[in-house]
Amino acid sequence: GMMAIEGLGHLVYHMGAGLGYVAEGIGSGLGFSGGDSNSNCEGEACLVGILVIIALIALVIVIYAVYNHCKDEENCHSWWYRGGRMRNKARKWAALWNGIEHNAFNVLGGSLLFDAKVDTSAHDR
Length: 125
Hints:
Blueprint: H1 2-30, H2 44-69, H3 79-82, H4 85-107
């Protein structure tokens, strides 16, 4: 338990230091601050860089949450679809194709268009 907590502490510390270096690089690239690469991250460059990184992380989290929420198709339909008209059309369309497939495959024992079967049992090989 204690080693895991210590490891998380090191992780947070080094991630913060890494974010500082990244922010310094972004800031110096945008002209906010000069200096060599060994200088500490200070001022506007750090703030802008860290805010950009935090915004990107938040964007990824939001996209992931929306993606997981919309896995169930009913969650992400518009009010117009859920209102009935489009839902009824979709249900009728699905019922039509289910009926066609049932008739073609189960009742007739056949298959749909362009699915050819050739009886080769009578031919000598």
